[in-house]
Amino acid sequence: MTPLGRIIAARIATEGPMRLDDYMRLCLMHPAHGYYSTRDPFGTRGDFTTAPEISQMFGELVGLALAQAWLDQGAPAPFTLAELGPGRGTLMADLMRATRRVPGFHQAARVTLVETSPHLRQVQRERLGEITHLSSVTELPEAPMFLIANEFFDALPIRQVQRVAGGWAERMVTLDAEGGLALALAAPVALSREAPEGEIWEICAEAAAIMEAVAARIAAHGGAAIAIDYGTWNGKGDSLQALRRHAPDGILSHPGEADLTAHVDFAPLAGAAIRAGAAVSAPERQGDWLRALGIETRAARLAWAGDEGAQAALHRLTDPAQMGHLFKAMAVWPSKLPPPPGFRPLPLAAQPVASAGLSDLAPRPEADPPAR
Known about the structure:
Low-confidence stretches: 354-372
Distance between the termini: 25 Å
Mean pLDDT: 91
Structural class: alpha/beta
């Protein structure tokens, strides 16, 4: 058992079974043994590779999309250029390089990164120089804001409930007969959601709260947000997974030494943005969105200039069997203004209705979500 695993086991032995979101939060952000608190998990030497690490094209096109949205809204100055969970700062570095010729953009931008990991904050400072770090989206300024969140929402702690004969039972982390970590079901509760017995429903109220806070600023002051992640619309089933050394791992096998993520359900995020008064897009497949922005032309130019990996990166980012269909992009912008490039407003008939009957599963107010 890992050092953090022993800490978690001792807590369960004293306090009883642990909620799954509490377990995830400890695994990811424990100050001494948490996954993001203690390492750089990105790239070939880490445990996973994100789109910005695959190719500069990704960050470049994201940056140009946000810059065009900024121009379409009259080039407000100053404005907050924000990223949630910025990793090594690779995306922001590519974004800034691609937008250096957009008149006035850099002069007006106030680069702001929401990051809780002390280790990653230092990595980001070394790459980006003078920037502002925040610990929570609630600290973002009340000002025009253009924001990117790439593979951020999938790392937020989730809860899982399973349909059983007596209602819905929450999945908990407990101890087995030998003192190891194991999953078990709590006592059933009544929720206003029908499903066949055995179905698992994942709930991430923190994701909706974060999106609502971002969308409220955009609705009030202008700007745009683009969220890119792997996920579905009105998702169901068990999607919680662990990744260690670029290979799947058991979610209880190496606490603090493996990444834990879950598929993002974009429907609650869209509902949160609408409640905040902003416009929201239908989720676009990453491959379709990047093609609409011109990634094929950019890849051809890089290949012509001698980048031997450009075509392979294009395939990985856009092919349906790679990241092209699994990953989705969704945008938020002020109502009555044009959407950012490559996005379409969500049809009124498709707009989600807020879920009811979740009072027994509300997040704890002191919960502090991790940033990737």
